[in-house]
Design a protein that fits this description.
Blueprint lengths: L11 E10 L9 E5 L4 E3 L4 H17 L3 E6 L15 E8 L5 E5 L3 H12 L3 E5 L13 E4 L4 H7 L6 E5 L4 H11 L7 E4 L3 H13 L4 H4 L15 H16 L11
Parallel strand pairs: 6-7, 6-9, 7-8, 9-10
Antiparallel strand pairs: 1-2, 1-5, 2-3, 4-5
Helix pairs in contact: 2-7, 3-4, 4-5
Amino acid sequence: MPEAGASGRKSFAVVTVAATAGSVPRAPGSKMFVYADGRIRGTIGGGKFESLVIAEARAAIEKKKALLKTYPLREGETDSFGAICGGEVTVFIEPQITGEALYLIGAGHCARAIAKLGAECGLFVTVIDDRDDLLVDLPPAVTGISELSPRDFITSRQWQSDEALVIVSRNHQIDREALAVAVEQTRAGYIGMIGSQRKVRMVFDDMRQRGIPEEKLSRIYAPFGLDIGADSPAEIAVSCVAEILAVLRGRPASHLRIK
């Protein structure tokens, strides 16, 4: 069975033995779950064959594209990898497409508005804040985490290209320390931080003094959001979520009107 992760999201692929010929380790219909981090449940035969399929499945998860591939399990063929079973196995690798994920550092007014809209847009939303009282009445689809500091949470994860990290805590010290580790997460699809132009410049200057190179800072969306003149938390949420979706989906965020 697939596993549940933070906010119910865990990327995985279902690998099914679709067809066989000759002597093979498992019959058609045998299945294995492969998770994005390489862990598996079940088996399709083990050995070098299975390790190759696991690598293909992880790549398929990243690309979000299904794959049908045949592996010869006999010596002497061009695509052989040393197996001596004598047959061949065709496997169907089917990534389970999950919605993009949004992780919010902070649970204040703006963060809660972003979390609510993000969840309504189908994102898997997680809010990280040490104030338990602010996490008890989050929208049902939003997960709250209070036991980890922002720094520990950010560094403990294996970030993916369809995940967004938004730093919108209650003070600039928390934002700054979260950003200091967030800039190292090069696989995250989006990293944004709230703040005025002045605050962002001050935080970025601090990052430079810590030796963080300019190319890492250039990946940060700060201040985050599309320029719609947002003022209230709800408007800020619209601005932020729209930018996140555009970046994660590789869209230009331009007008759709017919010119």
